[in-house]
Design brief:
InterPro entries: ATP-dep_DNA_helicase_PcrA, DExx_box_DNA_helicase_dom_sf, DNA_helicase_UvrD-like_C, DNA_helicase_UvrD/REP, P-loop_NTPase, UvrD-like_ATP-bd. It comes from Euhalothece natronophila Z-M001. One of its GO terms (molecular function) is ATP binding. It contains 30 helices and 23 strands. It is an alpha/beta fold and about 775 residues long. Strands 11, 12, 13, 14, 15, 16, 17 and 18 form an eight-stranded mixed sheet that branches. A six-stranded parallel sheet has the order 3-2-6-7-1-8, with helices on both faces. The protein is globular and about 85 Å long. The two termini are about 25 Å apart. The model is unreliable at about 1-5 and about 705-715 (pLDDT under 50). It binds adenosine-5'-triphosphate and magnesium ion. Magnesium ion binds near residues 36, 37, 258 and 618.
Length: about 775
C-alpha cells in the first residue's frame, strides 16, 4: 500500500499553490516550521513529474549539504511512491502514451543524480570545474579545472605565512585570524584589495589590502580557491562573459532557493544573473518555461556576520515581479500554519519575536494542540546546568521508550559551552557534537586528502608541504626552505623544482635521495590516475608512502583510531562514487572540502545532538534544550549596545525555540565559568519577554507523571488494525500503517503527521484509540 496516495495530499492549499505555480517568479514567505522546505522539495518532484522538466535543468540551493541530501532522499521517496501507484495502474493511464514511457523510464533511473541540488558553494564549485579556465582575472591570475578548495584552516595557514614570513609583520599585532576574516568580508562584498584600501585609507587598511593581494596571488599560484572565491569568481565570470552566462542560464530553467533570507549580495547577484541572463529591464524578461522560486523567513535571518542581508528577501518582488497591480498576489504565497511545534511552544516563539521592531508581521497558526509544559530551569552554575540536562534526558528516555537519543538536541550560543554538557552526559548518553572537529578536519584525513590533492593538482603547494615529510622521511625543514626559496626566485610552483632530479640533487644535499623518491612516488600515481579507481589510489598511496605503516608502528589507541578514520574515508569515497554522477577523484575532493559540520548529523545513529543555535537552522527535534540564557552570553555581549545586532540575537532565540516539536527546556545559570573566568550571571532579557503563563519556572519533576489515558489498548496486545487512529503522549495523533508481528510481539508502525513514522510497542507506550 503506498504511504500517500497522491504526494500533493501531504500539502495544504497554499503549499499546493506554491508547488503548482509553474513559470515566473514566486516568493514563499512564512514563519518557522510552516512547511517551506517541504513545499520546495515537493515542487522539484512536481516539475519533473507533471511538467516533464529534465532534472538537469533544475537548480536547487540549500543551506547545508545535509539538507541537500535529505531533499534528494525525499524526492526519491516520492518517485518510489509514484512508481508503486503506476504498478497498480491508478493514474498513469490517463496520460498519453509517450508521456507514460517517458515518466516510467525517468522514474526508474536514478533521477536525483541529475538534479543540481546543493549549497551555493558545492553547486558553483561544480560550475567552476567546467569553466574556470575561461575566467579573466583583472590581475591576470589563472586557475585550471583541477583547482583545490582550501578550507578555513588551509586559508589561515596561508595568511599566517604571508604575515610572518613574507611581510615580516608581528602576528600578535596583526592576528592572522582577523586578517583572514577581513579578507573574507571584502570578498563577500565583491571588493578587490584596492577597494579595501579606498574604504579604509589608514595603516590597518593598507596592511589588510596588502595581505589580501598577496593571499590571492598565492592562491592562484597554488591553483587553489577559498570558499569565498567559489561564489565570487562565478559572479565575476558571469558578469564578464555573456556566452558562459547564457549557457548556464539556459541550463537552469528552474531555480529554487531555500533559506533565502540568509543570502548575501554576491550570492544574490549569482541567482539574479542566472535567472535573468543579465537582462536589466524587468519588462524584457521572458519567463516561458522558466521560474525562480525562493522561500524564506526574515525572522530567521541570523548570518549577518557573513554579510547575509534579509532585505534581499524583502526586495524579491521588486527584483523579479512585473510591477502590475496584481503582481503581489501572483508572485507571493504566504504559509500560515505551523506543522512542527506544539501550540504552547509556538506561542512562546511568536511572543518573543514580536519584540523585534524590524519585521513584517505575519501569521503563524498552530496545527498541533498544547504539549508538555515548557520549563525554564535556574541552575546554580554551568555544571549544575549540565546535571539538569543529564537528569532530564535520562528521565525522558526512560519514561518514553519510543524516544530515541536522536530525538534530543541541546542548543547553545557558543561552541565553548559544549564541554561542560559533554562532561555531564558522556558516561551514560551517546551524543555527537555537530560543528566540533569535523571528520574532514582530522589530521589523518587532511594528510590523506593532501596526497590525493597533490596527485590531481601538483601546483597545490599547501598540500605538498603538508606531506613532503609526513610520515617522516628525512626531508628536514632546511632542505624544504631551500627548495621553497628556489621556487620563489624562479617564480615557479614548488613541485616544478621537486620533480626535477637535477635541481633536487643540486639543492637538497644529503636529503636529495629522499626527495627524489618522494617525487617518483607521486609521479607514478599521477600517471595512473585515470586507470585506477579512486579508492585504490588512496589505499596504494597510503601504503607506499609509508603513512599507514607509520601509524601501525605507533601502536597507540590514538593511532588505531586514526587508522579507523582512514577506513572511514574509504567508505566515504565508495559512497560518493555510488551516489554521484561526477564520481571522479576531483569531484570527491571538492565534495570533501565542502563537507560541513552538519554532514556529521546522522539521525540513524541515535545520538543526542549538541550544536550551536546557528547550526540548528532548518532542523527539528522532538525535544530541545536551549541553554545558557544569560545576559552577555545570549544575547551575546557584543550585541548589547547595538539594537540591530540585538534583534538578530532575538531571531536566533526564535530559531532555537522553533526547532522543538514536542517539548522545550530552557535553562540559565546564576554563575558561570566560561573562557576561564567565573562570573555571576543575570538571566537573559529574552526570558522576561516570554509569556509567563506558558513557562514553568519551577524544577520539572524528575519522574514526569504519566498521563492517565482513557480507553487505551495498552496491554491487550491485539486487535490493532491498519488505519486505526491513535493518540500518543509525545507524538500526538497518528494513523497505524502496519501491524508488525503478532501476539505478545506485536509492534505498530504509526504515521504521525509532521513527525514521520515511528515503530511503537503498544505494550510499553500507551496508545489511545481515537
Ligand atoms: N502540509 C503539511 N502537513 C503535515 N506536515 C507538514 C506539512 N508541511 C510541512 N509539514 C511538516 O512540518 C515540519 C516543518 O516543515 P519544514 O521543515 O518544511 O518547515 P520550514 O518552513 O522549512 O521550517 P524552517 O523555517 O524551520 O526551515 C516538517 O516535519 C514537515 O514534514
Ligand atoms: Mg526549512
Amino acid at each position: 500500500m503506498p504511504v500517500e496516495t497522491d504526494f500533493l495530499d501531504g500539502l495544504n492549499e497554499s503549499q499546493r499553490q506554491a508547488v503548482q505555480h509553474f513559470c515566473g517568479p514566486l516568493l514563499v514567505v512564512a514563519g518557522a516550521g510552516s512547511g517551506k522546505t517541504r513545499a520546495l522539495t515537493y515542487r522539484i518532484a512536481y516539475l519533473i513529474l507533471n511538467h516533464q522538466v529534465n532534472p538537469e535543468n533544475i537548480l536547487a540551493v540549500t543551506f547545508t549539504n545535509k539538507a541537500a541530501k535529505e531533499m534528494k532522499e525525499r524526492i526519491e521517496l516520492i518517485f518510489a511512491q509514484r512508481l508503486a501507484q503506476e504498478k497498480e495502474g491508478e493514474r498513469l493511464e490517463l496520460l498519453p502514451e509517450h508521456k507514460q514511457v517517458k515518466l516510467r523510464s525517468r522514474a526508474y533511473q536514478d533521477i536525483t543524480k541529475h538534479l543540481w541540488i546543493g549549497t551555493f558553494h558545492s553547486l558553483f564549485a561544480r560550475i567552476l570545474r567546467q569553466d574556470i579556465n575561461k575566467y579573466q582575472d583583472p590581475k591576470g591570475y589563472q586557475w585550471d579545472r583541477n583547482f583545490t578548495i582550501y578550507d578555513e584552516s588551509d586559508a589561515q595557514s596561508l595568511v599566517k605565512n604571508i604575515v610572518t614570513k613574507q611581510l615580516n609583520l608581528d602576528d600578535k599585532k596583526f592576528n592572522p585570524r582577523y586578517l583572514r576574516y577581513s579578507i573574507s568580508n571584502a570578498k563577500n562584498q565583491g571588493f578587490y584589495p584596492e577597494d579595501v584600501l579606498a574604504q579604509q585609507p589608514n595603516y590597518r587598511g593598507r596592511v589588510i589590502s596588502e595581505v589580501y593581494q598577496e593571499y590571492q596571488a598565492q592562491l592562484a599560484s597554488n591553483n587553489a580557491l577559498d570558499f569565498d572565491d567559489l561564489i565570487l569568481i562565478p559572479a565575476r565570470l558571469f558578469s564578464q562573459n555573456e556566452s558562459i552566462l547564457g549557457y548556464w542560464h539556459k541550463q537552469f530553467q528552474h531555480i529554487l532557493v531555500d533559506e533565502y533570507q540568509d543570502t548575501n549580495r554576491i550570492q544574490y547577484q549569482l541567482i539574479n544573473l542566472l535567472a535573468t541572463n543579465g537582462e536589466p529591464k524587468k519588462q524584457n524578461l521572458n519567463w516561458e518555461n522558466r521560474s525562480i522560486f525562493v522561500v524564506g523567513d526574515a525572522d530567521q535571518s541570523i548570518y549577518s556576520f557573513r554579510m547575509a542581508d534579509f532585505t534581499i528577501l524583502l526586495e524579491f518582488q521588486q527584483d523579479f515581479g512585473d510591477g502590475l497591480p496584481d503582481d503581489d498576489t501572483r508572485t507571493m504565497v504566504k504559509l500560515e500554519e505551523n506543522y512542527r511545534s506544539r501550540e504552547n511552544i509556538l506561542e512562546v516563539a511568536n511572543t518573543l519575536i514580536e519584540n523585534n521592531s524590524e519585521r513584517i508581521d505575519k501569521i503563524l497558526k498552530p496545527t498541533r494542540g498544547y504539549g508538555e509544559e515548557i520549563y525554564c530551569y535556574k541552575a546554580e552554575n554551568e555544571i549544575e546546568e549540565g546535571q539538569f540536562i543529564r537528569r532530564q534526558l535520562l528521565t525522558l528516555q526512560n519514561e518514553n521508550p519510543e524516544l530515541n537519543w536522536g530525538d534530543f538536541a541541546i542548543l547553545y550560543r557558543t561552541n565553548a559551552q559544549s564541554r561542560v554538557i559533554e562532561e555531564a552526559i558522556r558516561d551514560k548518553i551517546p551524543y555527537q557534537i555537530i560543528g566540533g572537529l569535523k571528520f574532514y578536519d582530522r589530521k589523518e584525513i587532511k594528510d590523506a586528502l593532501a596526497y590525493l590533492r597533490l596527485l590531481t593538482n601538483p601546483n597545490d603547494t599547501v598540500s605538498l608541504l603538508r606531506i613532503i615529510n609526513t610520515p617522516r622521511r628525512g626531508i628536514g625543514q632546511k632542505t624544504i626552505d631551500q627548495l621553497i626559496s628556489a621556487s620563489q626566485e624562479l617564480g615557479v610552483p614548488l613541485w616544478e623544482i621537486i620533480r626535477d632530479e637535477t635541481s633536487v640533487n643540486t639543492l637538497a644535499g644529503r636529503a636529495s635521495k629522499k626527495v627524489n623518491e618522494f617525487a617518483k612516488l607521486i609521479q607514478r600515481y599521477q600517471a595512473n590516475l585515470d586507470q585506477l579507481p579512486a579508492v585504490e589510489i588512496l589505499d596504494g598511496i597510503l601504503s607506499e608512502s609509508g603513512y599507514r605503516q607509520d601509524l601501525q608502528n605507533q601502536g597507540t589507541d590514538e593511532a588505531e583510531n586514526r587508522i579507523e578514520n582512514l577506513k572511514e574515508l574509504d567508505s566515504a569515497m565508495t559512497q560518493f562514487a555510488e551516489e554521484n554522477e561526477d564520481n571522479s577523484l576531483e569531484g570527491f575532493l571538492a565534495n570533501a572540502a565542502l563537507a560541513s559540520d552538519l554532514d556529521n548529523l546522522n539521525e540513524k545513529e541515535e545520538k543526542v545532538s549538541l550544536m550551536t543555535l546557528h547550526a540548528a537552522k532548518g532542523l527539528e527535534f522532538p525535544v530541545v534544550f536551549m541553554v545558557g540564557l544569560e545576559q552577555g552570553l545570549f544575547p551575546n555581549r557584543r550585541t548589547l549596545d547595538d539594537p540591530a545586532a540585538l534583534e538578530e540575537e532575538r531571531r536566533l532565540c526564535y530559531v532555537g525555540i522553533t526547532r522543538a516539536q514536542e517539548q522545550l527546556f530552557i535553562s540559565h545559570a546564576e554563575e558561570r565559568r566560561l573562557w576561564g573566568s567565573r562570573e555571576p550571571a543575570i538571566p537573559s532579557q529574552f526570558l522576561s519577554e516570554l509569556p509567563e503563563e506558558l513557562v514553568n519556572y519551577s524544577s520539572p519533576p524528575i519522574k514526569p507523571r504519566r498521563q492517565e489515558k482513557k480507553d487505551t489498548k495498552k496491554d491487550t496486545g491485539q486487535n490493532w488494525q491498519v488505519g486505526d487512529r491513535v493518540f500518543h503522549k509525545t507524538f500526538g495523533e497518528g494513523t497505524v500503517t502496519h501491524v508488525l508481528g503478532n501476539g505478545e510481539k506485536t509492534n505498530l508502525a504509526v504515521q504521525f503527521p509532521g513527525i514521520g513514522r515511528k515503530i511503537i510497542d503498544p505494550k510499553i507506550a500507551s496508545l489511545e484509540l481515537i
